[in-house]
């Protein structure tokens, strides 16, 4: 078995990263939003202020997920930045 990194693209800067280095925002299949875990449409975002600010200003998460993104999701990501950058997505 090969142990290739699984790459995902940041919705803001459009660069490819290993998915463990990105935050995962999910529009859950049963409705609602989640961070890091769950089944549904996903968007990935760099763990930086500039990508988060750009995604908020230009509504890049909304476009990628094809729905409104709750302010609480953006606030949770901002909190992760101020807490010293919590670990990336736990997706496998």
Show the helix and strand layout.
Elements: E1 7-9, E2 16-18, E3 22-28, E4 33-35, E5 40-46, H1 49-57, H2 60-65, H3 71-82
Amino-to-carboxy terminus distance? 15 Å
Q: Report the strand count.
A: 5
Radius of gyration: 13 Å
What is the element string, with H for helices and E for strands? EEEEEHHH
- Average pLDDT works out at 90
Broad structural category: alpha+beta
Query: What oligomeric state do these chains adopt?
Result: single chain
Low-pLDDT stretches are none
Main pleated-sheet profile: 3 strands, antiparallel
Assigned CATH architecture: 2-Layer Sandwich
Examine the coordinates and then state which fold CATH places here, giving the name of the CATH topology. Answer: Hypothetical Cytosolic Protein, Chain: A
Number of separate structural domains: 1
Based on CA inertia axes, which overall geometry fits?
A: globular
Top CATH class: Alpha Beta
């Amino acid at each position: 078995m090969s142990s290739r990194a699984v790459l995902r693209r940041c919705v803001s800067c459009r660069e490819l990263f290993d998915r463990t280095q990105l935050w995962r925002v999910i529009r859950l299949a049963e409705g609602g939003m989640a961070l890091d875990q769950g089944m549904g449409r996903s968007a990935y975002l760099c763990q930086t202020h500039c990508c988060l600010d750009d995604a908020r200003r230009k509504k890049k998460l909304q476009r990628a997920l094809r729905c409104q993104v709750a302010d609480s999701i953006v606030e949770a990501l901002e909190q992760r930045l101020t807490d010293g950058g919590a670990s990336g997505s736990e997706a496998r």
